[in-house]
Structures are given as structure tokens and as C-alpha cells.
Amino acid sequence: MDRGESDVLNKNLKHIYKIVEILYDKGDLFMKRKFNAFFTIGCALLIVISGNSFAFAADNIQLTNDDMLLVNYGYPEESIDALSLEQRKELVKALNDNPDNVKIETSVLELDNLAEIESFMGTSDDVLVEMGADLSAIISNRYELNEISKQTDVEIAAERDISLTEAKYLKKSIEKGRSEDNSYDCKDKDNAITASGSISSSKLTYTQLYSNKSTSTAPSYNVTLTYNWISPYTLTIFTDEIVTAWGGNLNSSNISAKASYYYDRGTKWDTYFKQNAMTINETVNKGIEFKFPQSIAGLSTQVRTKTGSATFNIYQTKMQGYDTKILSQYCHRVLSVGSASIGISASGPSVGISVGGAWDTSPQRSTTIRY
Predict the structure, then answer these.
(1) CA nearest 144: which of 264, 225, 59, 309?
(2) CB 208 within 8 A of CB 365
(3) Fewer beta carbons within 10 Å, N or C terminal of the chain?
């Protein structure tokens, strides 16, 4: 274990100890026994994980000739690791067979981290839970931000690899939110602290692509949806989604989706942790919602989803000669009193996706298909 891995382990052990301490003080005798056992097992698991799960660094990506072909046809270079090797081979084959049968559409989502921090620190745990946040994640996020506020600007800048100015803004957003005395209005971000730089915002690249496998008698499309957070986001208390919809009453099959989680060092991604299957909610013949938590650690805000992909096939047994669209977008849940609903609508060739105000979304991608 190198020094960087040891630092991650020590930080995670501190998170576990503090959270168990908080919950222990609130629990009854039965729960205290549970927490004692949980703490022991959690520490042991973290030691095992730290010794075995650091597979590779997030920025250690070497592009192959196949990768370069995808990039040359419009797939974002920084998102290559969101595709599995099998997905890359299939797409390269489709491009080599006929590049006109492959469509790639990309958009970018930018998230205001400082406004989110300020809102979070000024909102009570009860209100956050009512909004759908996970309690253990709330405690963990709040603990980490409180610990940051105790550091000097120089310490924050060194640990998170940011400028002194950015460190000052980070502390100010924490302190201003905390001064609101848990009465912060999640809708009012006009007076939130804003700044430029890597700490102030996070960017995500979202891509929709398909390969046309249709024949003259039957439509068939292989669809792949990927995302890549170029820089880590700060809060990890909710669940994110990829939502997709299509018209024409097409059937779906071979649905698969996974999210990959990484450690981070403040404003930069660090080592890979693990990959989890997404939850799949299908609206038959109309669309799919792919759901996954922003962080799987729960007891540590250091393990966030960086990349992910969802794949599926849509088809019919007979070509009808009409046009419809495949729509999709990434939905990142944020602190807002707006609706958290996501809706899929489709009637004949007409199709739509509606997203409530509790989400920051990538611009919707749309591709016309024949069925």
C-alpha cells in the first residue's frame, strides 16, 4: 500500500468512526450492539479493500487504435473508459461495416458545487430526508464539510489541489450555509457564493449513440448511453438517473447497465473502486430509467460514480415506414424543492421526456430512426 492509498484508508476509517459514534449515541441497546459489530466488520473490510481494490488510476488511460477510431467519429476521448472493451469492439465493427449506420450525440452538464454546498449546510437532516436523501450519506457529507471548515486555506488548497482563492470560497460556502441556521431555501441560489475554478463547478459528458442493425423488412437498433464526470462533484446524498424514451411502440431487449465508482482527491479523480449494476425501470415499448446512487460508500463521500453505461436493443418484426426518435439525458439530483419526478411519454411516433425541477440535466439528445 502506497502513501496515497494509506491516506484514503485513514480518512475512511475516520468517517466510519465518526458516523458510528453519532448513530451510537442516538440508538437503543439492540442498535448499539449492531453498530459495534458493524464497526468491526467495516474496518476489516476497508483494510481488505484498500489492499485489493485500487486497480488503476482514473487518468491512466492509454488509447488503442480502436479507441482512436471512435474518437475520430465523434465519441469524446475523455469518456472512452465508460465503454467496456466489448462495447468498443462492437462499435468499431459497426463503423468499419458502414459508418453511416452509427450516430453519436454528446452533451455537457455543468454543476454548481458551491451553491450545492451552501444549500446543504443550511438545510436540516429531516428536510433532506424528506427530499429523498440517504441519512447515512447526509451525516457523512456533513461531517466531511465540517472537517474541511476546520482547516486553514493552505491546508485545503494542498489537500484538494486547488488555489488559495478557491479554498477561501469553499470555506465561505460552508460557513455561509451553516449560518443560515437550517432555514435555507433550496430555491434561492441567487445569493449563493460563486467562483471560477475547479472547486466551483463539475462537468459531465453525456453521450447517446446507436448502431443501425435494421433490414429492409424489420427495424433494429443497438443503443448505448454513457456518462463521464470529468471532475468530481461534491455532494453525494441522492440517486442519479439516465432516462431514455422512443416512439413507434418498439420492443426492447438485452438491457444492461453498470455504474463505475472511483475515489477522488477533491477536484481530481483517483483510483477505481468497483462497478455496480444500475436499477432498471422499464416502461414497456416506451422507455427505460436507469438508476444508481451518487456514492456507494455511504460511510465515505470519497467513492463517487465517475463513469457508467447502459445498453439495449429496440426492434420490431415488421418495417412500417415511419420515423420516430430516440431521446435520452442524464439527470443529476440536486438540492431543490422542485419536483423529483421523471416522466416518459410515447404515442405512435411522438415521444417525450419530462424532468422535474429537482434535477440538473444534460441537454437532451435526440436521434431520428426509421421503423
Answers:
(1) 264
(2) yes
(3) N
Q: Label residues 233-254 b or e (16+ Cβ within 10 Å = b).
A: bbbbbbbbbbbbbbbbbbebee
Q: Look up the pTM and report it.
A: 0.81
SS3 state of residue 107: strand
Asked whether 349 and 246 are in contact (CB, 8 A), the reply is no
Q: At what angle do helices 113-121 and 135-149 cross, to 10 degrees?
A: 100
Residue 8's CB is within 10 A of a number of other CB atoms, namely 24
What's the rounded Cα separation, in Å, for the pair 200 and 193? Answer: 9
- Do residues 160 and 11 touch, judged by C-beta distance below 8 A? no
Q: Alpha-carbon distance 327 to 342, whole Å? A: 13
Residue-wise pLDDT tens digits, 22-42: 444 445 443 444 444 444 444
Distance CA 61, CA 55 (A): 13
CB-CB contact of 269 with 305 (8 Å): no
Which residues, 6 or more positions from 193, have their beta carbon under 8 angstroms from its beta carbon? Answer: 114, 115, 118, 169, 172, 173, 176
Q: How far is CA 120 from CA 46, 81, 177, 239, in A?
A: 27, 31, 7, 16
**Is 290:322 a contact under the CB 8 Å cutoff?**
no
pLDDT band at residue 62 under the 50/70/90 scheme: confident
Confidence band for 201, pLDDT divided at 50, 70 and 90:
confident
For residues 130 and 132, give the distance between their C-alpha atoms in angstroms, rounded to a whole number. 5
Residues pairing with 221 in the sheet: 212, 314
